Amino acid sequence: MLETVGVIRAWLRAHGLALGFVVALxxxxxxxxxxxxxxxxxxxxxxxxxxQAIRSYAALRPPIVDLKGPNFNLxxxxxxxxxxxxxxxxxxxxxxxxxxVAQAFLLALAAWPLxxxxxxxxxxxxxxxxxxxxxxxxxxxxxxxxxxHEIAFAVPLLAFSLSALxxxxxxxxxxxxxxxxxVKEDLGVTAVAVIGALIAWRGARRLGIVTAVIGVTASxxxxxxxxxxxxxxxxxxxxxxxxxxxxxxDEALTSVDEKLGTLMLTLAITGFAALFSPIVLxxxxxxxxRFVGDEPNYWGTRYHYSAVLMPIVVAAMIEALGRWKRSxxxxxxxxxxxxxxxxxxxxxxxxxxxxxxxxxxxxFWQPNPRIGAIDAALAKILDGATVSASDDLVPQxxxxxxxxxxxxxxxxxxxxDWIVVDPYSTRHFRVHRGQEQRALAEARTHGxxxxxxxxxxxxxxxxx
Length: 464
Hints:
single chain, mainly alpha, 20 helices, about 5% strand, globular, about 55% helix, five-stranded mixed beta sheet
């Protein structure tokens, strides 16, 4: 018995801090995401899309997503079969909150290897700083505050892989990196290949080459064969983000101030220490494709696009500071202190601009003022019905109905049983308010009658 207690105490000394961060960050991220959903601040694009896909997986069907189009297979949009891992949990708890909690756990899990590595290398105090810098970083905050995305799986895989790489466990680094090809089609070439190159550069040449080849080959097959095979248009939709319009150089020189701000902030949370480790090179391909793309949402720090960068730059910081500490010079010790002060200061300074600041807003803890009308309208919709809804109302229905985004497709093409519209929605990604109101007026000429109208919420039912 005493021996068992001793083993537990030893394990907690070694891993207790890392475990504590995972638990605390999971609770923090879940709280924010769930409150946003309960306040009707999540959307069909993207929470509803992923719930429809995972709901299909849970029913042992292909990931058909009606929000993207009739019989649209989501594996023809992005290649993310790893999402099937959430399906068993969704089968037990069929609600969008399952996806939000799963994402919260995955993002929090990335803290484990980073904090544990920092503790072994730099001590408990700095490990706590690492956990805070990663856990409160703007990239993670943006992902937590914007629905659910498959990229949540990439964040812990990168953290485990790069922590192993930094500690010289090269086989483990490869083993954690290769599953990234199942998260999204670009990660094979933008992450796995670079990690493979670093593994080769650090001595395991054959292992590194094999890892890189697997990454590049997987991305090539996914983009040129698998995605076009499933896509209804027979192509990979996202080539158009780079291959059409203005030349790549012109795109790269567009909104340079915004792109430079994203780059500087990404490095600043590490006190710029990430620049002193080759691990930071893993972030380069992702930054390049974002900055040469013609989609403005890629350029800034909002949404989920920076989440994968956070474990990369934090891992690079840990490796750089570990090397400085081993040099045992006065200059290195001073450098470590400067990095800690700058990294913590920048991280804390960003909090008011991202989703963690919501915790301090009084309205965040209050119900949506129109929730009574929303609940009353949605209660009239029968389970299993077909519904066309405003973006913010979509994930309130996807667990129990077949839902499309109102105003996106002609009514005579989809003919839903019900239409429910929230003109005050905070989410209008694909259909703006003017389009929605025009479509609402048109619906009444297609045999739809108003059966509920309160606090702006309008519910229509198709006659006959």
